[in-house]
């Protein structure tokens, strides 16, 4: 099939999905399957139309095709992050919808891949893409919290939200504040600390991070290494603010890990 033909097919399928013209479930499943195949096409216009069509998939069908959609979208996101800003924004929006609607059992399969993709795209030079990724991380924290198998993804996402409060773009920093406000009620006591700091006229990042690391160590001592590792990833960032935020998190995290190690040694010697 030539490029122009694929473009026409993508436009046709996208229109069918967006305007709910398909009532037969088997036909709808077939159109979704073909649209997913078009998401792997190298032509950006075809990709854009395919992703736009997937974004309009009815909620009931999203759950039936969640694994296939997420596999295609997360696999292509790193490439799209370089080649097409409108495309990746649509893809992230679709991912968020899938993750919000899927069951916990499906989430266990989908979140690790989505988390890996979000990590890879978070340092994109485009602030709007970073802001969209921040929204995706907020959803990952909410969906992964309380699921033991997803502890690393949950806290890794939270660590990146904390660090990007120092993003060079004010809009991304604000998106982080919003995401943290929405996801931290899932952790008892965290929203009190966050609201206390975010409501202050002068927000001091260092003070906030130290308060959060102390609280994290108290509630989740076993995952502090996840926060340190996330900070280490950004220690060579091109953004001076992110480098400085990483340094604070690394320093405090290592102090707490060292303290935890000393306490464990003392306990084992008793």
In short:
The chain has 270 residues and is mostly helical. Helices cover 78% and strands 0% of the residues. It has helices spanning 3-18, 25-38, 44-55, 59-64, 66-83, 85-101, 104-121, 127-144, 151-163, 170-183, 190-198, 205-219, 224-233, 240-269.
Please describe what this structure looks like:
Helix 2 (25-38) runs antiparallel to helix 3, helix 7 packs parallel to helix 9 and helix 8 (127-144) packs parallel to helix 10. By secondary structure, this protein is mostly helical. Helix content is 78%, strand content 0%. The model is unreliable at 262-270 (pLDDT under 50).
Strands, total number = 0
Ends: how far apart?
Answer: 73 Å
Sheet with the most strands, sense and barrel status: none
**Unreliable parts:** 262-270
- Proportion of strand residues: under 5%
Q: Count of helices? A: 14
What's the mean pLDDT score? Answer: 78
Oligomeric state, counting identical vs distinct chains: single chain
Relative helix content: over 70%
Radius of gyration: 21 Å
Shape: elongated
Broad structural category: mainly alpha
Order of helices and strands: HHHHHHHHHHHHHH
